[in-house]
């Protein structure tokens, strides 16, 4: 295993394509990444429409903050149970074919929600069930999706690729919820679900056209041993563990998205149209930050300290949103959460991908999923429970304060994260643990 890992330090590189490349966004000069990026944009916009519609519909059916929080529980339990297995599968079989399968399943589940809503047979338990099944598919989809990006661009373009991908995701997150609010007001929730199902066609077409290279040093079969190898790699990589823990505690404490229907209807009184804009505001800030990171992200010297500062800023913006009673100020605070979270996310993903060989990227991503998806989803449940007891503003404010305190505590303990610069890893000299 040691020889295999050491031989993969420069893995994930794709041979350079002839012709000029964009100087500002060099990742877009690679055909396969460009196709993948475009397909993901359309599909993600539809998925964000669906997520906003699910939260809105659950609140209309139940009028309960706790019921909103349970959406997060339905998403996180399958991820915790299946993500390790999903990571192993992503390191064994062709990642492109796996994504075609998972995206097809997610499209079918959106159609189920559309048909159930149109026919009048929808209930909160139907929504919870479909949400849980979608989370099962995501447990296999996300490791393959994240692990494939480094194989579509050369190593020195990875930070740019992650930044461009993040910006696209956030742009879709702006467009999706804003459109969802308009479609709900004009055509109903079922129309949102149908639109989401149609959006998956874009990414399925892109996946049939790209030809990513084979997994370098990939394992031959799914096994407990393969899963243990991934866990051992994570255990022996403190910098990866600290970034994941920071991601979890910050998003668990600072999750306010689940409560946006309450803020839209009762705190700010802006209705479904205003709700869509509120839901999209974090992505608006993230687009600005993502664009800046695409240009300047590779120049950041103290990446670890920048991550810590960005997460602390995320908590501060969350507190500001909870205190605000003015719609514009609330939008600005939410935009701040998106901007700070994007800076942190781009750098965290770059650190993880550069310090992980290709043959382990699926399993590394599956472990990190339990942190970066488990934190927000469990945080939604916690936020709903606190809001049911003491109100939505108190839930958001206390969560933001807790996120700041957690960041300070981690900064005091994680010397390796504070001092991390990442330049050796960017040049292919980052140390991988011995096995």
Topology:
Blueprint: H1 2-6, H2 31-62, H3 65-92, H4 95-119, H5 124-148, H6 158-186, H7 189-209, H8 224-235, H9 238-254, H10 260-267, H11 271-296, H12 303-323, H13 327-354, H14 361-372, H15 374-390, H16 392-413, H17 415-418, H18 423-426
Helix pairs in contact: 2-3, 2-6, 2-7, 3-5, 3-14, 3-15, 4-5, 4-7, 5-14, 6-7, 6-11, 6-13, 9-12, 9-13, 9-14, 9-15, 9-16, 10-11, 11-13, 12-13, 12-16, 15-16
Describe this structure in words.
The N and C termini lie close together (6 Å). This protein has helices at residues 2-6, 31-62, 65-92, 95-119, 124-148, 158-186, 189-209, 224-235, 238-254, 260-267, 271-296, 303-323, 327-354, 361-372, 374-390, 392-413, 415-418, 423-426. With 435 residues, it is mainly α. It has a single domain (27-209, 220-426), classed as Growth Hormone, Chain: A, CATH 1.20.1250.20.
**Mean pLDDT metric:** 78
- List SSEs in N-to-C order: HHHHHHHHHHHHHHHHHH
Count of β-strands: 0
CATH superfamily: MFS general substrate transporter like domains
Count, helices:
18
Shape designation: globular
The name of the CATH topology is: Growth Hormone, Chain: A
Relative helix content: over 70%
- List segments where confidence is low: pLDDT < 50 over at least 5 consecutive residues: 1-20, 424-435
In the CATH hierarchy, the architecture is Up-down Bundle
Note the beta-strand portion: under 5%
SSE-based structural type: mainly alpha
Taken together, the total number of domains comes to 1
Largest sheet entry: none
Q: What gyration radius follows from the Cα positions, in whole Å?
A: 21 Å
